[in-house]
Write a structure and sequence with these properties.
Layout lengths: L1 H27 L1 H22 L5 H4 L9 H19 L1 H22 L11 H20 L30
Helix pairs in contact: 1-2, 1-4, 2-4, 4-5, 5-6
């Protein structure tokens, strides 16, 4: 039960993180926003490691190099999220993000990639994945409709538009 609560809390924190990072990306640009996110995260993790956990230096020698790619992938994830959340909205972004995560996780489980145990793909799991995919298609088909008539999708990066501004007006 604790792990289920942690997973749910992680989902809440992931959405909040994406929204904060999208706002940062809107202010300074997607890639600089990603850099700031990771610098602040590295400082926070550094404090925890320095004062909280004991690092076993001998363990670092046996870590496969590919496992260090996660940091680079994280930079790409945050930079892409900074842009995508603004372009498609929080709901569609979350649906597509979860769909990508679930499909990738299913492949990792089925094939046992990255040292994970193999967990067979069953007809019930395939049905569940198909239903998730169908749900994602429904959300995608509905598109991004503004709440206020006359508003539209976010302005391209580098320009700013106030909430509720009409399609042709730009705020400075």
């Amino acid at each position: 039960m604790l792990y289920a609560l942690l997973a749910a809390a992680n989902g809440v924190l992931t959405v909040m993180s994406r929204m904060v990072n999208a706002a940062l990306g809107r202010s300074v640009g997607s890639l600089p926003g990603s850099m700031v996110n990771h610098l602040v995260g590295a400082l926070g993790a550094g404090v925890v490691v320095l004062f909280g956990w004991q690092a076993r230096l001998e363990a670092w020698a046996s870590v496969p190099w590919i496992y260090f790619v996660g940091g680079c992938l994280g930079v790409l994830v945050v930079a892409a999220s900074n842009y995508a959340v603004r372009a498609v909205g929080a709901t569609l972004f979350a649906v597509l993000l979860l769909l990508g995560q679930i499909l990738t996780s299913a492949l990792i489980d089925h094939f046992g990639w990255m040292g994970e145990i193999q967990i067979a793909m069953t007809p019930m799991k395939l049905l569940g994945l198909a239903l998730l995919f169908a749900g994602a298609l429904l959300v995608l088909a509905d598109g991004r409709r503004p709440v206020t008539p006359g508003t539209d999708a976010p302005a391209p990066e580098g320009s700013r538009r106030t909430h509720g501004a009409s399609a042709g007006s730009a705020a400075s």
